[in-house]
Design a protein that fits this description.
12% strand; 295 residues; Rossmann fold; alpha/beta; single chain
Length: 295
């Protein structure tokens, strides 16, 4: 069992939302790899958080040389399986979402309405339908309650919940509406998964170079790499809930392992401190992020 100091080093070391034994956290990827595909130079050597494997696979299929790292052995093996076209499984996050979808009918969100909405490909029409069919007082109150800090603490570890912004329900509602106004639902796999739990085909080509999978802490692994080992980094949201000393350690490790001109893509549920041209959260079709910083 890791010591208290080791636990403080990384918020993901335990591999469980509630601080128990490692488990599969994510069976679905909640990050749009189009962000990285547009930002990374062709043929980059990429360090990626493995997560559910889709980002690593998309990058490898596009010709990048990918090293996928995850501290959670269950998550890493699942990412390896998904990269080899293994089956989609349900993780802890999907079980929570499934319970949430079960409550949507109480707010008047029938499956028929959701399918009608998801079949749309005109963002202007989507917003009109969203406001007429879904954006009810019952929905707003229900989501605000489900995403309140006191209820989130029943599911997530305290450091992660503390890092979430206050009024998170209202913030998420605004992010969803922003997404409906930008991205056609019909071809958005994240919208289908969120509202129905269905997974659209990914249709990635086979990677030219096999993905290298490593079970390790991100900072620890990067510290072991030679200087200038990577041209690009896809960090997911590993700093959400992380203590300052770990964030500083990771930053130093990134600077050491990065080649000149390397690009970093990092996500966070937090709201950005200020408007920035490098925050591409609105362009991420997964709809949920406050910050998708590409620099």
């Amino acid at each position: 069992m890791p010591s208290t100091i080791e636990r403080a080093a990384s918020p993901w070391r335990i591999g469980s939302f509630q601080g128990r034994s490692p488990e599969l956290l994510f069976g679905f990827t909640y990050e749009d790899p189009l962000v990285e595909l547009r930002a990374f130079a062709p043929g980059s050597k990429v360090f990626a958080i493995a997560a559910a494997g889709s980002t690593a696979r998309a990058l490898a299929a596009a010709g990048h040389e990918v090293t996928a790292v995850d501290i959670n052995p269950c998550q890493l093996e699942y990412a390896r399986s998904r990269a080899a076209e293994g089956p989609v499984l349900e993780g802890a996050a999907e079980r929570l979402l499934s319970r949430g979808r079960g409550l949507l009918v109480l707010a008047g969100w029938t499956e028929e309405k959701r399918r009608t909405f998801l079949a749309m490909d005109d963002p202007a029409a989507q917003i009109e339908y969203w406001r007429a069919a879904f954006d009810s007082r019952a929905w707003r109150v229900g989501l605000d309650t489900l995403l309140s800090h006191w209820l989130l603490r029943l599911v997530y570890a305290s450091p992660f919940v503390t890092s979430m912004p206050r009024g998170f329900g209202a913030i998420v509602r605004a992010r969803l509406e922003r997404g409906w106004a930008m991205h056609p639902n019909r071809t958005n796999p994240y919208a289908w998964h969120l509202l129905l739990g269905e997974t659209l085909p990914e249709n990635y080509a086979q990677p030219a170079t096999p993905i290298r999978f490593v079970c390790a802490d991100a900072a620890e692994y990067l510290e072991s790499c030679a200087p200038s080992s990577f041209d690009a980094f896809s960090l997911s949201n590993i700093l959400d809930g992380a203590p300052v000393d770990y964030a500083d350690r990771l930053q130093r490790a990134l600077e050491r392992a990065a080649s000149p001109g390397a690009v970093i893509a990092a996500r966070s549920f937090k709201e950005p401190e200020s408007q920035s041209a490098t925050n591409l959260a609105a362009s991420d079709r997964s709809l949920i992020w406050g910050t998708v910083e590409v620099r």
